[in-house]
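COMPLEX REQUEST
Ligand: zinc ion
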Amino acid sequence: MVRAKTAVGVDLGGSNVRAAVIDQDGKVLSVFRDNLGQHNLPESVVAVVADAINRVLLVASLSIDQLVGIGIGIAAQLADNQGTVAVSPNLGWRNVAFGDLLQAALGRRVRVVNDVDAIAWGEATHGAAVGHRDVLTVFVGTGVGGGLVLNGRLYAGSSGVPAEIGHIKVRPQGAECGCGGRGCLEAYLGGVNLSRRLRKAAETDWPALRQKASGDLAHVHPGLVEELLIEKDPRAADLFEELAGMFGLVLANAVTLLNPSALVLGGTVLQGCPTLMKLSEEVLRKQSLDVTNAALKIYTAKLGDNAGIIGAGSLVMASGRKVE
Ligand SMILES: [Zn+2]
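STATUS: Structure written out below.
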């Protein structure tokens, strides 16, 4: 029987894993999602990931040998192109040979990339930026991540950590960042850090924000600032102006350096704060060259939660060969 080429794409976050069988058109044929629970030890996570992969294969009636390959996007900074995790704040890992462990569990080599790199590839090949060969993707969710497609290929850098745009410095000696540095964009704009700052403000000197969260600090999140802005809260306007100033300037510098034809913006913080996204785009347009702007189209991410699995699977499809 002749089968369409298929690959498995996996999206491994800090608390859950999604695995999918996808075909060469980026269509999701089967998908399985599981929670990591409290089991963040590398061996436990590898077992959960391997189980998720085996389950989607079972549903799609495929064996692992019929796949073109297996691609995994992981929320981590990688140490090399072999899937060794240098740091994953979300998983609490340092120096974990994740690629090797998963290969041992599956009996098959896997390709491991940063989660936003997988998303970037998914959006460039099957999402918002189809048809573009030079694409910068930036996601603002729990953290701030970036991915680069240059000349039609995912740019891997020299050690697998390009486009770490969240760690571009915006305030030398500024706020502490999860990477160990100070003054990174992510320290201000990343959802975890921004929400922490908002909770503190709601607790002390921003009663309107606390009220928005029905008095419950656990329910404070960036989307509430968008709501306050619509109600003409001056502090909400000041905060978005401050954040858009930083974010827009970083984006302007990035596109000035790279001259991409597409910028894809996504992630839960930007989804929940459309005005922040709009203001950041305005700063970006104002702070970059006219010739850079003329070539640049800005898109909102299109694939949603499927971007990571589609991207990770498509990536091995693009570079791998089918094992007969
Ligand atoms: Zn940082």
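REMARKS: Confidence is low (pLDDT under 50) at residues 320-324. Residues 120 and 147 are 5 Å apart (CA to CA).
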